[in-house]
Design brief:
With 597 residues, the protein is an alpha+beta fold. It has 3 domains: 116 residues, no CATH class; 251 residues, Spore Coat Polysaccharide Biosynthesis Protein SpsA, Chain A (Alpha-Beta Complex), CATH 3.90.550.10; 126 residues, Jelly Rolls (Sandwich). It contains 18 helices and 19 strands. The strands form 4 sheets. A 7-stranded mixed sheet has the order 1-4-3-2-5-8-7.
């Protein structure tokens, strides 16, 4: 029976519901496009058209014909498609129309703002230049005859004044400037400082790739190579990759854009890739941020900036395409990833129409696909809590706020969240970055395409007269071999007062130092509560010049006139529960830059 109904051209109830929704949105889309291009002229014409019954019927008939034509063409042939294929096509069309509807609402908001400005100006002029001829001239709201009579009888009272224009000022929506007040310090705070535009609009998928300077190595070009190579010819024409450079150093931004243009000249020329960077005034004074979650100020600054970068990119991308794919600048992509995304998204929209985002990778904020029309809600949510927690935590919090009531258990809440967060069967994206965008943080990620992740980082360091440590060495992971770049140092549970000392062969002017503890195999084996000290030549007292942070990194720079120094050492200030690894020792001098082995 079901097969016969399909062959006879049966359309499921879901189709008809979507059809009438599409009909409504198609009218909105038509008005949006012509309003943007023809302005008031179209508004008058549209009003005339819809006021004429015969013209209105003709317009309705043409619109219905267009929708049926789109449905049949999108099915791949002119025969009645299978029900599941039809539902996917209709769901895809509905998502496109929701995107257009969001653009229409944004345009309408601009028009309403302009209308209110004109209205306020007119009311101001009337109140200052002439006396209104009747009571109805003094109000901007619709009054029934009975209410007008009642208000006339109340003339001169506070009650009657409640409908007068001077008391009906437009409320301001507590949006961007109210939630991010630092933006009001500069009228150009939301204007990009750099934008290598592509000119593309109305694409299927916008891929957002935020990037910043990294501590050691940049993976951006690797990421873009995989993203570009994973697209079919059709995908290239319906995709936009936006690289967001979250740096205020314009020279660095321009250099990054130039590297992209040199590496991907065809993709930049045809509009597949564009580069965007915010104004310096877009960011707040990070030193004034409030500490939350017990994190260090260093981490608070990092995650706050990451949130601001994410919503800037989302806000820009939401008007460019139907879907937004959230990525990072240190990932690789599966071949033909976009085809898999489109197919799974289409089927999921039929089976789970109320999804908020689809996970194509379960690591952090990587591989999350949103409807562009839904982004405004999440962007506003992040603006409320951008200083409170990282972006991936905010995603979880937002989902919980949408579907979890206060009385739900954690298990029930997790189940509810899964209903609006479908997951693809495999990850289409793999994280490859060893060095996090947060300086000092090492991320344990191994990938077969790029070989094994190193456990130590050798450097050529100044010659020593001697070195010593109180920490018991483990096997052949000695301090001497670590300093010479042959392995990492591995010691057993440092105690308070333990030291690692490096005595130079001759007094040395240190330019910078880097001591990195732990590695990808032993993330907890790092220095805790440990300082870096130097001994100026000809003196007997060491001076503290740095300390290990929460990620086990100690680095710093020293002025030339501060040295030379006879020694540099690490001093443990409290007992440790863990062993310790020193995976990188780099001491650079003012005599010349030392090269990595």
């Amino acid at each position: 029976m079901p097969e016969r109904r399909r062959r006879n051209g049966y359309f499921p109830p879901r189709f008809w519901r979507t059809f009438f929704f599409a009909l409504y949105i198609m009218l909105l889309r038509t008005r949006l496009i012509f309003t943007m291009t023809h302005g008031p002229l179209f508004s008058r014409a549209f009003g005339s058209l819809t006021s004429n019954p015969r013209k209105r019927f003709t317009t309705l008939f043409v619109t219905i014909s267009i929708i049926f034509f789109i449905v049949f063409i999108s099915s791949g042939d002119l025969s009645i498609p299978r029900e599941d294929k039809m539902e996917q096509s209709v769901a895809e069309m509905q998502t496109h129309l929701q995107f257009l509807d969001s653009l229409y609402r944004a345009r309408l908001e601009d028009l309403l703002t302009l209308q209110n400005k004109v209205l306020s100006s007119r009311c101001f002029n009337e109140s200052h230049h002439h006396q209104p001829t009747s009571y109805s001239d003094t109000v901007t709201v619709t009054l029934t005859p009975e209410l007008m009579t009642s208000l006339k009888n109340l003339s001169g009272t506070k009650t009657a004044q409640g409908v007068q224009p001077k008391n009906l000022q437009l409320f301001r929506t507590p949006f961007v400037f109210q939630l991010l007040p630092h933006l009001m310090n500069d009228p150009n705070s939301l204007r990009p400082s750099y934008h290598m535009k592509s000119g593309r609009v109305f694409v299927d998928v916008v891929i957002g790739v935020p990037t910043v300077k990294r501590d050691k190595e940049s993976y951006l070009l690797i990421t873009l190579t995989h993203l570009v190579n994973g697209l079919t010819e059709d995908d290239v024409n319906s995709t936009l990759i936006v690289v967001f450079v979250g740096e205020t150093d314009l020279e660095y931004v321009v250099n990054t854009a130039r590297q992209i243009e040199i590496t991907f000249p065809k993709q930049v020329e045809n509009g597949l890739i564009e580069v965007l960077s915010p104004s310096t005034s877009y960011y707040p004074d990070f030193d004034t941020l409030e500490k939350t979650l017990g994190d260090s100020m260093k981490r608070v600054k990092w995650r706050t900036k990451q949130n601001l970068d994410a919503i800037y990119l989302m806000s820009y991308a939401q008007t460019k395409g139907t879907f937004y794919l959230m990525l990072e600048d240190d990932v690789i992509a599966k071949k033909f990833y976009m085809q898999e995304i489109k197919q799974f998204t289409a089927s999921t929209t039929v089976s789970t129409p109320n999804w908020f985002f689809i996970e194509y990778c379960q690591v952090g904020g990587i591989g999350k696909l949103f409807r562009s029309s839904d982004l405004i809600h999440f962007v506003t949510y992040v603006q409320l809590f951008y200083n409170n927690m990282p972006i991936d935590w905010l995603l979880e919090s937002y989902l919980a706020d949408r579907v979890c009531s206060i009385d739900k258990t954690a298990k029930a809440c997790s189940k509810s969240k899964s209903t609006i967060r479908p997951k693809y069967k495999t990850s289409l994206f793999q994280h490859i970055g060893l060095y996090s965008s947060l300086k000092g943080k090492i991320q344990k990620v191994k990938d077969a395409h790029f070989g094994s992740v190193p456990t130590y980082y050798p450097h050529t360091n100044p010659p020593l007269e001697s070195m010593k440590t109180d920490i018991v060495e483990q096997g052949d992971h000695t301090l001497k071999r670590a300093y010479e770049g042959q392995t990492y140092f591995w010691g057993i549970k440092p105690k308070k007062g333990d030291m690692i000392e490096f005595w130079f062969e001759k007094p040395t002017a240190i330019k910078s130092f880097t001591f990195r503890s732990s590695n990808v195999d032993h993330a907890t084996d790092k220095f805790y509560d440990t300082v870096v000290e130097v001994l100026p030549a000809g003196t007997n007292n060491f001076t503290i010049v740095g300390s290990f942070d929460e990620f086990g990194l100690a680095d710093g720079e020293l002025k030339k006139d501060a040295g030379p120094f006879s020694a540099i050492r690490l001093r443990v200030q409290s007992d440790s529960f863990y062993w310790v690894i020193l995976s990188e020792i780099e001491i650079m001098t003012h005599d010349g830059t030392k090269e990595t082995r």
